[in-house]
Design brief:
The protein is built from three helices and six strands; from the N terminus they run H-H-E-E-E-H-E-E-E. It is of the alpha/beta class. Strands 1-2-3-4-6-5 form a six-stranded mixed beta sheet, sandwiched between helices.
Length: 158
Amino acid sequence: MNGNREYRSDVFSMLMADKKNALQVYNALNGTHYDDPELVEIHTIDKGVSLSVRNDSAIVVDSSLSLYEHQSTVCPNMPIRCLFYVSNILRKLTKDANLYGTSLIRIPVPKFAVFYNGTTNMPSSWEVKLSDSFMKTERNPELELVCKVYNINKDKDD
């Protein structure tokens, strides 16, 4: 079963490696109408960077860094994983910047989406937050990361 899950994730990754497909997904999620695939910068992390860190798809369009993941199981740990992914990508994007300088370094706005197509009955969409993992509840956590999860099963278009 684990191999089947990896296969589906690899297919998703291959589809999202095509700038035209990635732009269509970006437009659908953001209500935009970009039509030039060359606006898409692909920043996906593969196993070559770190054997333990690999994400499905990451793109920059219009100053937004969108990380997209495909899941066939409900995974409450997606915010932690996305934190690792975005940290690695931002490290690459700012590798030549003077992080200790007095000038503000501008980064793309991170956005996180998970596409779920598992068999567990789930709503059409929901959110998972990094703060859900904290050992102690904080009213206003100083670090938060929210993943929007979309149930892409065909019977969940409500």
